[in-house]
Amino acid sequence: MFILTNTFLLKFRIMKVKQLPVPESVFPDVENLSPVAVELVQAGVDRKMALQIADQEWEFVTPEKLPPLGSYADFLEYVAEKLEMSVDAVGVKNRAGYIVEAIRENYQDPDLQKARAHRAEKAKEKQLEELEEEFNLKRRTLLRQAIHAQPQLVERAAERIQAHIIRQRLLEHPSAIEAYQKGGMVAAEINAILAEEFCQDLLAPVVAAYEDEKDRILG
User: pTM for the whole thing?
Assistant: First the structure.
């Protein structure tokens, strides 16, 4: 009796994975630099000089030419103004040199400063609007959660409504909760009463965070 067997020959090839080179930084000239130095290097200022200015900050400015305290949020804002000034400076052949001297001697351009102040004010207004929208959204969300847990809060808040026109709107509905669900003036007034009288503890962390951020924006 013969038994036939099939023999399989397995071959393995061991290959050494080639190590790929580590890519160089896209911005090697500004890697690990402070924001001030980065702005200066990118504007064409010599790296060594940029580092000196960034390191010394206000000490680099001629003492007699130092701006009054509070004129700028920080040194970076001061430098950014001089960089912008250098873009439109007339008759400048060496922009880097102009920038260094503008920082050292605190060059002034009233029109540019007025334009920058206007842009900063607009940016501040936009930040405040966005903050207000975010706060109102968080407040409405927390109030909805409170009402979902305790529906009777709406009836209790409705009893505190004093404005005649809002009470008239309230009476047009079978219940306070139905009037509230319609939105509009009734819902806004009830939300205000809930926030002030019934849900202060719930809203306290959100209110505190809102006030802190508002103070930061207003400076």
Answer: 0.64
**Spatial separation of the C-alpha atoms in residues 219 and 210, rounded to whole Å:** 14
Print the SS3 string covering the chain: CCCCCCCCCCCCCCCCCCCCCCCCCCCCCCCCCCHHHHHHHHCCCCHHHHHHHHHHHHHHCCHHHCCCCCCCCCHHHHHHHHHHHHHHCCCCCCHHHHHHHHHHHCCCCHHHHHHHHHHHHHHHHHHHHHHHHHHHHHHHHHHHHHHHHCCHHHHHHHCCCCCHHHHHHHHCCCCHHHHHHCCHHHHHHHHHHHHHHHCHHHHHHHHHHHHHHHHHHHC
pLDDT in tens, 144-197: 999 999 999 999 999 999 999 999 999 999 999 999 999 999 999 999 999 999
Longest dimension (CA), the chain: 113
- Cα 39 to Cα 13, 44, 52, 87, 151, distances in angstroms: 53, 9, 13, 13, 56
